[in-house]
Amino acid sequence: MFCPLVCLWPLLSCLPSPMPPILPPPTPCAADSTPRPAGDAVPHRNQKPPTHRQRCRITTSSSSSPLSAARVLIANDPTPRAFSALFKAASSSSPSPSLGSQLHAQAVVRGFLGDGDNTILSTAVLNFYASCREPDLARRVFDRMARRNAVTWNALIKGYAQAGRRDEALALFRCMRRQGGVAPDKYTFPALLSGIGRNHGGGCVQELGGAVHAQVVKSGLDKDPFVGASLVSMYAATGALEDVKVVFDDVDTLDPVVWSSMISAYINCKEEEAALLTFYKMLCQDIKPRQFVYSSLFAICGSMSMLEMGRQVHAHSLKNITDKDAAMTNALLTMYSDCGCIDDAWRVFESNDIVDVISYNSMILALGQHAQPKEAAELFRQIKFSGLIPDEVTLLNLLSAFNHAGLVHEGLHLFDSMLDIEGIKPTYQHYACVIDMLARSGEIEESMKTIKEMPFEAETSLWRIVLGACSKHGDIETGMKIAEMLFEMEPYEPTNYILLGNICARLGRWAEAEKVRSLMEKRGIDGDDAFSWIEMGQTTHKFGVDDRSHPISEEIYRNLDRLIGSIKAAGYVPDTNFATHSTEKDRREESLRYHCEKLAFAFGDLASPSGDTLRIMKNLRVCGDCHSAYKYFSLVTGRKIVLRDNHRFHHFYNGACSCGDYW
DNA sequence: CTAGGGTTAG
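^ Those are the sequences you sent over. The predicted structure of the assembly is below.
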């Protein structure tokens, strides 16, 4: 039995939460990317020509690449069987279409695909093209075949499904029995379902899913773990958690993959606690977890900022996983970053010997969120030396690092050179990031201009970003215009009202602020309640605004009052511009005093040894007055404080914040 | 000759 994670914090009961990460001492990135042996050249030389058996074996031998195996094979009078094996080998690891078509040509030249019974070899060729995401080429092979068996159909269905061509995959599925006279088997359903729902949400998928599920039951395959796992993820993609559970209950539960798809299903449906409990149940059944499960668990712990749980899961993975895995390691890196531990994230990155682009992307993202744009840029520079190629996410993450830090120049420069230098065409998200950057830095006009000029239609979320910038810079005219537009497009989105109200409040136009508020009330709209939380050992403590529900609430308030006394003595002045909710001046200061992030700090300060770093999370953007108070908190208590809001991390130390007050 | 689950991005 695997160590059960301290019994998974008796039943949990955790928190919802938003996004990203934190902090500090720049380890000049020594990412000594392991240079890989150049190319897949040079076949291993055998002194004697290989025997027939050797020829078959050589094609699947894992020690030589498909290309070198192919060279040896072609030089040695291959048989059709050997060709099949070679196609199989070529399909598995990042298939190269050109190698495939050369082999295909060789097979044709040798007459292996001419006529007669070549079903197996043709299917191997077909499967090769399907694996290359070239279902149309696979289809051409398919159409020329004299005979097709279930394997042939399954391979082609998989080809279309994985290329995201759901309708064609389904059409083939229907033809299979009717025209092909072949019944679907336990390979068919996973092939069909693997592509459905994933990229294509939407209602029709759900109906189709139900119909396919019915076929599964009819075929008596509902116990099969492969079929079950694919059904689980199909239903999860549509959010149909009830159906997921039905499938899970039917299926043979000794299979680890079924468990990991169940865990992912809960994550997809935003049931993180259930996902953790499922992991626990899995351990209780003595099922050994694999890398996949840990990636999912790290993602949960990160997104919910459960550092202690994350550490335990990490330790657990070290005991149970011996092979390193890029995806798992990347998830681990992100988990530490999301929990506010940027130096642990660094450690994971630097000790990782299976770095891929996503590793770099994740680390660049983390650095950006933790206000270390220089390090992010340096890492970007290093990608080239590692033999990896930056992708659009890389560029986006680096842009966003510049954005967080207000490095508008660098950001614009990068954006302008994306296409020419990196060969990556800016997507909507790149534009959105740049527009955000311009607006937040005060270039609101310029950002509006960019919105008009970009080759995409702006979504409401982008307008909301600009509205937020108007609020920050007190541009009430533009703000009003955008707000009115947004009120029409999405009349029930609370953020729009709140942002406009904030503009008025910041400019001291209290009557108008009040008007916005009453409009909101009239329409029955509620903003999200703000809350903050802090983890102490295995317990998470959550605070709302003016919250007195904590068991030691009295002490917390007393400590906060004391702290505010000392920070005032140190120079802190409450910024009542952030008190948007009441109109009388002295009440405004009071309303700031017990903001949830201040309560969480006061608690953390009480509950942990002095000098400890405190990590505090907030579900919404951190309030400006609290940001200022936190700087003084770090000064008077000598603590490091990491504050995560829904956007980024702030690291407070010695009276200053890592964001340099730009946020 | 065919199959299921995971990681970055707002």
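The longest helix of chain A spans residues 553-569. Residues 531-657 of chain A form one domain.

Shout if you want it in another format.
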